[in-house]
Amino acid sequence: MGLSGWVGPLPSFAAPPVVEVAVGIEFLQLPGLGPVQLVRLHDLWRDAFPKIQEQPALPPASFSTGPIGFQFQVSHLPAIRIWMMSDEEDELLQVQNDRLLLNWRRTPGDDRQYPRYDHLREVYERVLAEFRERVTASSAGIFRPQTAVVTYVNRFAFEAGENLKDAIGVLNSEWNAIPNASPEVRIAAAVAEPGDPGSVVGELVATATSDASHGYLEVVTRINITESDGDVFRRLDIAHEYCVTGFEKLTTLKMHERWGKE
């Protein structure tokens, strides 16, 4: 995919420690998209995602750096979310009345690398087009995209004597020595329009944790989609670029070598 011009050349790793990726958008609640209509959406994607489960709805999300606008929504619809999974359960569609997400997940015993953003984007582009067509035909409501969201979850093993400071570059040797504090690091950064640092249009949030043998780094980027910006996928590409660049900037050269930075 072509770069958006917001970030610049993207880093690439031969063996990135990615165990899950999610791409998608959040939109204003669709009042006509109730539980029955959500389940019926499975007819669109049954071939690629034959398995279906009901899950609790994800709560509304908001920027910790402050939203650009204020959206007030009241819904009396039951709060549910539908999972639709591939046979291998490594690809997952999540749909509820205010968002549509596509996940890739590493399943137990599967040592394949993740299929890269371009693949997920291609699948999601087709799914979103079918979803929008169904919403329009069923009079479920007016489809108004609000936010493009990309999430990367990374899991990496420690070698002897290592801990999270060996992977996360902003930590010093005593990062986990704060009395009675949970060893979790959370970093948030505002995303602005190029050349206009005061125009906050999104955020990047990175959360790092660890156990005795592994470190975990989740990077989430959310970019607002304005009414004047009709290209949802351009905003999704921007979110992806910030996730990848954020991962590189937060992690150490030592780990870059281990993960085969190209």
Automatic annotation (TrEMBL):
This is TIGR04255 family protein. InterPro entries: CHP04255 (IPR026349). It comes from Mycobacterium gastri.
